[in-house]
Specification:
Among the domains are: 57-159, no CATH class; 216-306, Carboxypeptidase-like, regulatory domain (Immunoglobulin-like, Sandwich). Helices cover 59% and strands 14% of the residues. It contains 9 helices and 8 strands. It has helices at 2-19, 29-52, 57-87, 91-103, 109-125, 127-132, 137-192, 198-211, 308-314; strands spanning 224-233, 244-247, 252-255, 261-268, 270-277, 287-291, 296-298, 301-303. With 315 residues, it is of the alpha/beta class. It is elongated, with a radius of gyration of 27 Å.
Length: 315
């Protein structure tokens, strides 16, 4: 995010320089339209960055605490379910309850929630017996509500995180649009006034030179590219912080932030293999990419918890 904020600050500085030299646009409706388009892009970029700088923990922090509580309660309630199954000589139910209790701490959030709702329904069905075995009405009511509320929270969390991913994609797109507008139109408008408005030209070009992304010394910047993307959990859509994304052939490595976002700069033109890995997750197949006409590529990864296959088979 730090790089994006720095890019925004440079765009804002350019916009201020243009505002301070209205002669460039006065009585020139098409030139003014170009300026307005640029200003609108900068404003939208600023809005998106303001949204994305809010910690992602604000989105799924409450979910993590609720999940921890529900996992603990699921083990306790599945224990009551085991007693209920034994008293009813129900071997199938007994096997299910044992599985749910064993997997309470390892199942994915969505699967764990399904287990909790199932256990709550069974206890509802055998409530009198469960109460005789020690379950209180208040405990049952609390557990059932927690399971239902957690399901709603999961769906809402996924929705909010999906919004954040959409905002990241829009942000990358708008930066590209602003860069293209500067390069192909505003640069030309300012260059035309190099001699008639030397102060404007000097201020603008100083910012433009600092705004341009530089490749390694001695190389043509046009031959270097940017790769961005996100790493998320395949079965929940939640972001994965600290996942390693790398292009081994170039010795380029970076870790994802709390949004599951990464950015690799100054990738030279060519064909490469990019992969991703994280302890506790199944390593996905590497993706092949070809840096070519586009200055910015997006490569996203969906990875599954290493335990997911075991959880599925056990259930």
């Amino acid at each position: 995010m730090k790089k994006h904020i720095q890019r925004l600050q440079k765009l804002l500085a350019i916009d201020r320089v243009l505002d301070n030299h209205p002669v460039l646009f006065e009585e020139k409706p098409q030139a003014q339209a170009v300026k307005d388009s640029f200003s609108d892009l900068v404003k939208r970029i600023a809005t998106l960055i303001s949204i994305l700088t809010q910690p992602v923990s604000n989105v799924y922090g409450p979910k993590m605490q609720s999940e921890k509580n529900l996992r603990t309660q699921l083990r306790r309630m599945a224990g009551i379910g085991i007693l209920v199954a034994r008293r009813n000589n129900n071997d199938a139910l007994l096997s299910q309850m044992k599985t749910y209790k064993n997997l309470a701490t390892r199942a994915t959030a969505f699967t764990m929630c399904e287990y909790a709702i199932f256990v709550a329904n069974i206890l509802q069905q055998y409530k009198s017996l469960a109460i005789e075995l020690g379950l209180t009405e208040a405990e049952f009511t609390t557990f059932k509500k927690e399971a239902e509320d957690f399901g709603d929270m999961l769906r809402n969390t996924v929705f909010q995180l999906s919004d954040r991913r959409t905002s990241w994609k829009e942000l990358r797109f708008l930066f590209t649009q602003a860069s293209q507008l500067l390069k192909h139109e505003i640069d030309e408008l300012v260059s035309y006034r190099e001699y008639s408005d030397a102060d404007l030209f000097r201020q603008y070009m100083t910012l433009r030179r600092s705004e341009s992304r530089k490749g390694p010394a001695g190389n043509d910047d046009s031959l270097f590219f940017e790769i961005t993307g996100t790493v998320t959990t395949a079965n929940t859509g939640l972001p994965i912080e600290g996942a390693t994304v790398e292009i081994a052939a170039l010795n380029l490595t970076i870790e994802t932030d709390e949004d599951g976002y990464y950015q690799l700069d100054d990738v030279p033109q060519g064909q490469y293999s990019i992969n991703c890995h994280k302890t506790g997750f199944v390593t996905p197949e590497a993706q092949q990419l070809n840096t070519g006409a586009d200055s910015s590529l997006v490569v996203d990864f969906l990875i599954s918890p290493a335990e997911s296959s075991k959880v599925t088979s056990a259930a």
